[in-house]
Amino acid sequence: MDLDYEKLGMKSGLEIHQQLDTRKLFCRCPSLLRKDEPDFIVKRRLHVVAGESGEIDVAAAHEAEKGKEFTYEGYNNSTCLVELDEEPPHEINQDALHTVLQIALLLNCKILPISQIMRKAVIDGSNTSGFQRTVLIARDGFLETTVGRVGIATLCLEEDAARIIDKEKGIFRLDRLGIPLVEIATDASILNPSQAKEAALTIGEILRKTKVKRGLGTIRQDVNLSISGGQRIELKGFQDIRNIERAIEIEIARQHQLIKKGKSIPEVRAVNVDGTSRFLRPLPGAARMYPETDLPLLKISRQMIDSAKKNLPKKEKEEKIEGLNNEMAALLLKRNKIEEFKELLHVIKNPQLIAKTLLLFPKEIASKEKKTIEQIEKILNRDVLGNVLEDVHKGKIKESEIKHVLTAIVKGRSYKGIVGAKNEELENIEEKIVKIIKEKPGLSKNAYMGLVMKEFHGKISGKEASEVIRKNLK
Questions:
Q1: How far is it, in rounded angstroms, from Cα 378 to Cα 29?
Q2: What is the pLDDT of residues 112-132, one digit of tens each?
Q3: 267 forms bridges with which residues in the sheet?
Q4: How many CB atoms lie within 10 A of CB 5?
Q5: How high is the mean pLDDT of the chain?
């Protein structure tokens, strides 16, 4: 979209929530998501509570008006009375605290020596208690991007929400409730969609150097944004970081039109797969926060900070990948493709080819087909690329044909049909080679090679031609 973000006065910030790879934050239960049938269920109705200011938060009031009853599923040996809000929280998990201190240091933050654990009113069913525990660990940090510094406003340690099983029926599972999260909130110094994506990728790179969980659903990104004359909007639910840029572009264009009509309002919006968004709830404010009365003040000593520094990962250290130069490895990291790259190494041991297939071919196809890279990568997902590279490994597809095959898939042809057509073509070529040998018997293998390569003009490789000739000269 052709928008002048500076002229529009765009301001934006990120909120990134990342699960830590430890036991739960306020009990000793494992941070384990389960697929088996739960051992028990409980049902609750949640009630709104006034915050520290004495006011009721508008977002909490919005949820309370629905009057829903919620069902919670649990397990006898991996959930406890803390998740059920039937027992006070235990002392904060020191392993999780250590990891968050490392993240704070990597983001150049000032760590608070004393902090109050707070309750954040949340009555959409995601917490049995009607609130989420959170504690401010550090603030006033920064990270560098190619277009300028982005400030880190706050860094908090908090507990994750219960896992949604059926949103419409209000069914949640307690296995995720209480898993430690680090919440990183930048200030509003992000000035365009591209910088937002770069900042999110940079934070992700830093987080991966510490003790965090990996995989789908372990990290969530939200975007806060506004333009001159408009209200602040929060976009929630980015599972795929590649969607941030497009979603911001669409929302800025929407806000621009709403401001002209005098209809811009503060709200939280859920992001759809195509980058559009839908109303979720009113924008919450400070009224939802009040102190946690079951836990003492959190004190962070100099000894704890020194311990976090002791094994601190180096920010300057790039991830080394055998078989790739530093530039290609850095590009994989920047495009958030490291995990896909490592998965594809199990399919074919050719790092250079995998990197080209992940990074270069989709970009070239996007340019040629006049599509966005996001549209191309949605079609050419890791399963599609895995199938293609597996067939390269098996000899069914030549390396030189990968881009052609991927282009055909983008144009709507089925992969099975493409491979089938190729095999049929090879069978026809073999029949013609046999015919050449029969029509001109007694020639040397090299002579037949010359005739075959001249006949087919690159439709068959020298290796394939040599094999067919050798087989038929016996």
A1: 37
A2: 999 999 999 888 889 999 899
A3: 233, 282
A4: 19
A5: 86
pLDDT more than 90, % of the chain: 49
Question: Token pair of 457, please?
Answer: 């003009």
Specify whether the CB–CB gap between 139 and 152 falls below 8 A. yes
Whether residue 199 contacts residue 150, with contact meaning beta carbons closer than 8 Å, is answered with yes
Identify the sign of the CA torsion 99, 104, 108, 112. Answer: negative
Statement: the pTM of the whole predicted model exceeds 0.70: no
Q: What are the structure tokens assigned to 451, written together?
A: 């005739």
**Going by DSSP bridges, is the β-strand pair 69-74/40-45 parallel, antiparallel, or unpaired?**
antiparallel
pLDDT tens digits for range 146-190: 888 999 999 999 999 999 999 889 999 999 999 999 999 999 999
**Euclidean distance between CA atoms 181 and 179, whole angstroms:** 6
pLDDT at 412: 84
For residues 167 and 280, what is the distance between their CA atoms, to the nearest angstrom? 13
